[in-house]
Design brief:
The structure holds 2 protein chains of 2 kinds. Chain A is mainly beta. Helix content of chain A is 0%, strand content 51%. Chain A is built from no helices and 12 strands. In chain A, the strands form 3 sheets. In chain A, strands 2, 5, 6, 10, 11 and 12 form a 6-stranded mixed β-sheet that branches. Chain A is globular, with a radius of gyration of 14 Å. The N and C termini of chain A lie far apart (41 Å). In chain A, 38% of the residues are buried. Chain B is an all-beta fold. Chain B contains no helices and 11 strands. In chain B, a hairpin with a 3-residue loop joins strand 4 and strand 5. Chain B is globular, with a radius of gyration of 13 Å. The chains are: A mainly beta, B mainly beta. At the A-B interface, strand 6 of A face strand 4, strand 5, strand 9 and strand 10 of B.
Chain lengths: 114, 112
Amino acid sequence: AQSVTQLGSHVSVSEGALVLLRCNYSSSVPPYLFWYVQYPNQGLQLLLKYTSAATLVKGINGFEAEFKKSETSFHLTKPSAHMSDAAEYFCAVRYSGGYNKLIFGAGTRLAVHP
Amino acid sequence: TAGITQAPTSQILAAGRSMTLRCTQDMRHNAMYWYRQDLGLGLRLIHYSNTAGTTGKGEVPDGYSVSRANTDDFPLTLASAVPSQTSVYFCASSEEGNQPQHFGDGTRLSIL
């Protein structure tokens, strides 16, 4: 069965510092992978998606993620954190046995301090 | 703006009572989903529907039922609420294939 692991439930960075949020998946075949962001009291918004094209995927708000098959990873990065990036981030993998069903990681809450 | 509308935004419900959470989308997406979000567990799929007239069970379906009478609406019903169903519920929709899912703003439900 597919699963998603996000290492670190909380990450804290300084404004202007590199953001690195980790995501590892388990799958026998390369999956479709997504990163979503959730701001307080809101639903999830798509940041970016990997669908077997380029391994480096660029998303909104300056975020990007790199698919590494050898490491079964899809880590999310941003070169310079902004205060407005404070939110919860979810990695998700498409469920191979069903129609577009997603398996979500537990989430990583990003705090950005001045 | 176009998207997914969920109602109510929040509700406090006595245990044993029934409740229907409403979800409507105006994007004409075929697929719709219901998730619950609990601290430390991320989002877990309750039920889904690939197209109007069909539904399927997700990861945590017990205690919940859904219907899909038309493309736009996908209500979630708790027939007899229990405290463990206290959660934030999200409805989502997507086009066919591997397209991303679009989410509503959620319903915060507390069962006392």
